[in-house]
Amino acid sequence: MIPRAAAAHTVPSRLRRTRAPRLGRVTDEQGPRPAPVRIRPEIAALPPYRQGKQAGADAFKLSSNENPFDPLPGVVEALRATVAVNRYPDATASRLRHRLATRFGVDPDGVHIGAGSVSILAQLMLAVSGPGDEIVYAWRSFEAYPGLVLIAGATPVEVPLTEDARHDLPAMAAAVTDRTRAVIVCSPNNPTGTAVTHDEFEQFVASVPKDVLIILDEAYAEFVTAPGSVDGMRVLGVSRHPNVVALRTFSKAFGLAGLRVGYAIGDSRILDAARSTSIPLSVTAQAEEAALASLAAESELLERVRHISARRDALAAGLRQAGWRVPDAQGNFVWLPTGADTLAAAAAFEEEGLIVRPFAGEGMRISVGEEESVEKVLRIAASVVQTLPEAHAGRALA
Ligand SMILES: *Cc1c(COP(=O)(O)O)cnc(C)c1O
């Protein structure tokens, strides 16, 4: 492993503060059309959100890391029973908060529920940062990070991943300055799949000033099987670092992506600040009830998660056997470093009815989907790897 030098301020040019702001978004083929009112320049420069492609009837949608299993009957029943939509929901989703507090052995004030953990990320950034402040995270990592930092008015500081697509935590610690207000650690990292170890994380926390918020984004925690990986609940339970907040979600392992419910565990004073910046009443009663029903069926859901993790391991092993260089995969997805050939490779998958998530010039993320999709992914991947030059970074060293 050859860690690259820390490269703070390696924000893509479209995000750099020095860039002359565009007056609006590209809305059609005619090119940029200025908005009718004055938009904050850093907002106008943001690319509009692009969702993973929708799959055709006979295609597999492997582009959004969704859970391929249908909702449990108990979850569907809970939704059917929650019909009083003329009423606002409970503002703090207190039943779910108490249930999670019991589940993880923390105080209920140390749990905060949001409409997806992405919304809690946004709340935390608004709570700790503004113009002139910096937020450090690894890159490439979760697509939402740069936009959320810019929306808060702060400056993103992106630290390149190591050669093996892992967080370079020493470089991230070195990128922290007196302007840094938060650092995001994504483990397993979306989209590369690699996990940070417990020891690495502890060392990292020890090397970051205590007044800097450390967000441990664990959207895929339940899929992790590598021993020694960081576990936010263990970190918070044993080490009790007051500046660490762990984020988890019901979207991935628990299959509630469409309902929008996630949670944060951490110091109640930090979570109070997140509550203050939140949009009130955005966690619906349906989301809360479905999450409670999911926790009631947790062992059944975790059994499904074990199937997905095993499927992931089989997929990664098959890809490596076919000649791909696949980083350690600890989420419900695998990463192919297709580099300059990414768009062509993604098109080859799409032609065969497999919708993947390409990141032009870097690689593609393929979610672990339905059982029948695995063989198909392997078949197409085996032919795509043959189209790559011998020395391509996507190929395993012979
Ligand atoms: C999916 C995901 C989330 C959370 O998604 P929500 O649906 O908003 O809970 C957070 N972080 C990462 C890295 C993700 O991939």
Automatic annotation (TrEMBL):
Class of the enzyme per the UniProt entry, highest EC level: transferase
Keywords linked to the UniProt accession: Aminotransferase, Pyridoxal phosphate, Transferase
Record-listed N6-(pyridoxal phosphate)lysine modification sites: 252
CDD domains membership: AAT_like
GO-annotated molecular function: aromatic-amino-acid transaminase activity; histidinol-phosphate transaminase activity; pyridoxal phosphate binding
GO biological process, one term: L-histidine biosynthetic process
Cofactors required: pyridoxal 5'-phosphate
EC number(s) from the headed UniProt entry: 2.6.1.57
UniProt superkingdom: Bacteria
Domain Aminotransferase class I/classII large intervals: 59-378
Presence of keyword Nuclease: no
InterPro entries: Aminotrans_II_pyridoxalP_BS (IPR001917), Aminotransferase_I/II_large (IPR004839), ArAT (IPR024892), HisP_aminotrans (IPR005861), HistidinolP_aminotransfase (IPR050106), PyrdxlP-dep_Trfase (IPR015424), PyrdxlP-dep_Trfase_major (IPR015421), PyrdxlP-dep_Trfase_small (IPR015422)
Chain residue ranges for the region called Disordered: 1-35
Assembly behavior: Homodimer.
Function as written in the Swiss-Prot or TrEMBL entry: Aminotransferase that catalyzes the conversion of aromatic amino acids and 2-oxoglutarate into corresponding aromatic oxo acids and L-glutamate.
Record-given protein name: Aromatic amino acid aminotransferase
Name of the gene this protein is made from: pat
